[in-house]
């Protein structure tokens, strides 16, 4: 075989073979360098020289970055919003429903029996597998009044992205107190379970009735703490510590009700695959402030002082202030130090070339 091959080729001296080998090596090197250059193209080149990115540019950029594990992070995106009651969640979710067809994603409400906030053990594993394997629904935004659930306990490789909103604890409690009595403008004809009860929140506190007991504020902490029994023990120091840990380590973004637009803005900039157009819709549609309680009296100063003396309020407020500080920090880091340009990053000094 070797002799036949030698007869086909013209007579070549060793120096000719050496030159041919060098040409082959150089060609392979340049081909490899071009492929590496395309794979690790600096973000500054992808975003253009102006440094200004629209939401559409950011979406295109995220799709252009190679994923070497073959996982489509855009089309497999799952966002889980375990919404705390009376924090403005209805306004936010209705924007999601309005834009889901336009942005080509699904919105799914998690409805648990009797509005329970903790899933049973069989339901936990069923829910985790549904969310992870229900590919026809992806990209998806799941929402519901349920406590944080740690997906890593169930051998899940790609966990959903958690988001949430928190509200000043006394404001949330007062809103819920009057909501149970007077309802809201979202479903005005629905009779609430405390309808006809005319006692004000101030009178309730003076009379020490159960509906205004500070223990009723114990909700935001367990929602962030999770499914452990200790999370639902009012006044638990462990629960507060765990809630803070989860807020920082397990949640992509936690906003505050008082800064809903800023919350929407950060989501649209970060996850445009789902949240593109949320800012404009929030500003210009009638969905920016849904579910206004029909009748609500602000508490007087003596009521505020009485509530703030309770350990429950102090702990819930500590979580709120912690979340607010983290949210302000996140907003600040969006911009460069001059507060005029968005922060950017790029890859450089890549070796070997």
From TrEMBL:
InterPro entries: Heparan_SO4_2-O-STrfase (IPR007734), P-loop_NTPase (IPR027417), Sulfotransferase (IPR005331). It is found in: Golgi apparatus membrane. Its main location: Golgi. It comes from the Eukaryota. It is a single-pass type II membrane protein. Belongs to the sulfotransferase 3 family. The chain crosses the membrane at residues 15-32. Keywords: Disulfide bond, Glycoprotein, Golgi apparatus, Membrane, Signal-anchor, Transferase, Transmembrane, Transmembrane helix. The gene is LOC108610316. This is Heparin sulfate O-sulfotransferase.
């Amino acid at each position: 075989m070797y002799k036949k091959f030698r007869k086909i080729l013209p007579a070549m001296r060793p120096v000719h073979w050496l030159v041919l080998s060098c040409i082959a090596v150089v060609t392979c090197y340049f081909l490899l360098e071009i492929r590496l250059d395309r794979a690790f193209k600096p973000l500054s080149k992808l975003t253009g020289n102006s440094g200004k990115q629209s939401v559409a540019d950011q979406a295109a950029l995220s799709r252009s970055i190679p994923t070497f594990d073959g996982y489509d992070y855009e089309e497999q995106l799952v966002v889980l919003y375990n919404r705390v009651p009376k924090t403005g969640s209805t306004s936010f979710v209705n924007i999601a429903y309005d834009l889901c067809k336009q942005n080509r994603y699904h919105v799914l409400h998690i409805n648990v029996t009797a509005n329970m906030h903790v899933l049973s053990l069989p339901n936990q594993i069923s829910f985790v597998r549904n969310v992870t394997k229900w590919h026809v629904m992806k990209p998806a935004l799941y929402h519901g009044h349920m406590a944080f659930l740690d997906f890593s306990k169930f051998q899940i490789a790609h966990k959903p992205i958690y988001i949430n909103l928190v509200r000043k604890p006394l404001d949330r409690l007062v809103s819920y107190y009057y909501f149970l009595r007077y309802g809201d403008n979202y479903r005005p004809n629905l009779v609430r379970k405390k309808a006809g009860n005319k006692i004000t929140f101030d009178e309730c506190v003076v009379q020490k009735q159960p509906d205004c007991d500070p223990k009723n504020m114990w909700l935001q902490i367990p929602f962030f703490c999770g499914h452990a029994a200790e999370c639902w023990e009012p006044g638990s120091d462990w629960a507060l510590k765990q809630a803070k840990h989860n807020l920082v380590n397990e949640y992509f973004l936690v906003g505050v009700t008082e800064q809903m637009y800023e919350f929407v803005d950060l989501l649209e900039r970060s996850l445009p695959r789902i949240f593109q157009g949320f800012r404009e819709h929030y500003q210009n549609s009638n969905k920016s402030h849904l579910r206004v309680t029909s009748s609500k009296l602000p508490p007087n100063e003596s009521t505020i002082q009485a509530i703030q003396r309770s350990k429950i309020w102090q702990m819930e407020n500590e979580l709120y202030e912690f979340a607010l500080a983290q949210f302000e920090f996140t907003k600040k880091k969006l911009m460069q130090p001059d507060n005029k340009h968005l922060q950017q990053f790029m890859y450089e000094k890549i070796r070997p070339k």
